[in-house]
Amino acid sequence: MFYLLFRVFFARDTFWVGRRIYLISVIAVSVFYPLVSLASWLERKEPVQIFIAEWIYLQEFTVVPETAAPAGVSISWSQLLVILYIIVGAVLLARFFVQLFSVLRWHRRSQKAIINGIPVRVVSENIAPFSFFKSIFVNPQSVTGEELSEILAHENTHARQWHSADVILGELLAIVFWANPFAWLLKREIRQNLEFLADNQVLKFGFDTRKYQYFLTNLALHSPEIRITNNFLNVQPSKKELL
Question: Do strands 111-115 and 135-138 pair parallel, antiparallel, or not at all (unpaired)?
Answer without folding.
Answer: unpaired
